[in-house]
Write a structure and sequence with these properties.
By secondary structure, the protein is an alpha+beta fold. Helices cover 23% and strands 36% of the residues. It is built from 2 helices and 12 strands. Strands 2-3-6-12-11-8-9 form a 7-stranded mixed β-sheet. The protein has a 5-stranded mixed β-sheet with strand order 1-10-7-4-5, covered by helices on one side. The chain binds dinuclear copper ion (CUA). The site of dinuclear copper ion (CUA) has 8 residues, from loops.
Length: 179
Amino acid sequence: MSAIQPPAQRIWWNQPIHKDEILWVVIAFTWCMIMFFMMPYWHIYGKQNLSNETYKVKPEWFQRATDEMVAKYTVRKETAENIPVVAPPAGSDVYLIARLWSFYPILELEKGKTYRLNLTAMDYQHGFSLQPENINIQIVPGYQHVVNITPTKSGKFSIMCNEYCGIGHHKMISNIYVK
Ligand code: CUA
């Protein structure tokens, strides 16, 4: 019997299945089922998996929502580019724009409060890498990535772009403050 030659019994599917074969089919099927149900299980209970939602979005809409938030909740400005530091209310939608080669604005959040973090890219694909928490999200233009976040530690966190986006990629860094 070989896999290349035609089978000796042409109607092979009517042959009784060998016990070993049934055993392997059962093992493989059981393993498939375990892997399958691990997907929803890990989505809900996995600590390291980020459950984000993604929607299509028009850049103008996202820019407007961001501008409204910045106009209402700016507390100060920082960096050489005068990027506003925004402290939006707990529970609200907060907006963060990635573009060549900065993040806008800088967010200041409260510890223990939950926010809906909305991310988009205005031009090319960027990355959102939150350090030292090591949370990584791809930010794709035309899409709005929504993550529910609840900071558990206060301090100054770093965001960096981890998707190569051109000559200024290495300078595409920012912060999130947690009070
Ligand atoms: Cu943006 Cu690399």
